[in-house]
Specification:
single chain, 284 residues, alpha/beta, four-stranded mixed β-sheet, globular
């Protein structure tokens, strides 16, 4: 496997004959941000990888010194302000489908995170089978969209509750909390932390585990499941969450309220239907 792929916003290198490294590196920028161009390149890279025989795994990493992906391109978000609800929902669906593809491939995918991994960047990382992160203090994760009067729109409101529990996920997103990589391990968002210089080696070790593909499928299915909550439990979570949102003057109440109610609704749905609820909530 001598081929290399070089696109505008990323390149693919081989860590080993059967393990690829997809390196995010937007030109002329100190940070990677999720843009339509980067999403196009991620799609092309995935198509390219799937066409290569004998691949055991792919690692997603960043060439930036302090940032994995710093959320969505705000200029792109601003450009959607005049869009119809249908156009905004399609904007969400495109990212949801693309990120989910990274869990549908016949090889193991690992996001190797160093530096800020927030908003759409965390949604991208969670689209991989596994996430590992550096134990550097600069490595912070979270979904802070409500600070901007938005909500996560690329399956963040679907995946996070299935990893950490519904009520905690609402709290983390509604309050726009960022958390360290160690805290992310405690939450179940990140599999393990290592030093920055060991990230790629640790990612390869995960891919080399005897049951890695089986574990990857189990992990994917766990993110697609319906949460087992009674109507009474959902009602209590809603009451507590909305009360907490009302008392927090640092957050955007409209976005946070829409967020909480849509997350309670989508927690009871299969993945595709839950993503539709998220897309409609983003449009709202």
């Amino acid at each position: 496997m001598s081929e290399l792929l070089k696109l505008e916003n990323l390149r693919v290198e081989w860590l080993r004959q059967d393990i690829a490294n997809v390196i995010l590196d937007m030109p002329g920028k100190s940070a990677n941000v999720i843009s339509a161009a980067l999403q196009d390149d991620l799609e092309r890279a995935l198509d390219w990888l799937c066409a290569r025989p004998g691949i055991k795994g792919a690692v997603m990493s960043s060439a930036k010194e302090k940032i994995f992906v710093a959320g969505a391109d705000l200029n792109a978000i601003i450009a959607t302000l005049d869009w119809s609800d249908h156009e905004i929902q399609e904007f969400c669906r495109r990212g949801q489908r693309l990120y989910n593809r990274w869990q549908e491939v016949p090889f193991v995918t690992v996001a190797a995170v160093h530096g800020a991994c927030v908003g759409g960047g965390l949604e991208l990382a969670l689209g991989c089978h596994f996430v590992i992160a550096s134990n550097d203090r600069r490595t912070l994760l979270g979904l802070p969209e409500t600070k901007l009067g938005l909500i996560p729109g690329w399956a963040g409101t679907v995946r996070l509750p299935r990893l950490v529990g519904l009520e905690l996920a609402i709290e983390l997103i509604a309050s726009s909390q960022l958390f360290s990589s160690d805290r992310a391990v405690e939450l179940g968002v990140v599999r393990a932390t290592v030093s920055q210089d060991q990230l790629l080696e640790a990612a390869c070790s995960i891919i080399d585990m005897p049951d890695a593909m089986h574990d990857a499928i189990v992990h994917r299915e766990s993110q697609h499941r319906v949460l087992d909550l009674s109507p009474n439990e959902r009602g209590q979570i809603k009451e507590r969450s909305l009360a907490a949102i009302k008392s927090n003057l640092q957050i955007h109440p409209c976005a946070a309220n829409i967020l909480a109610q849509s997350m309670i609704e989508n927690s009871q749905l299969e993945f595709a239907a839950a993503c539709e609820v998220e897309a409609r909530a983003m449009a709202e």
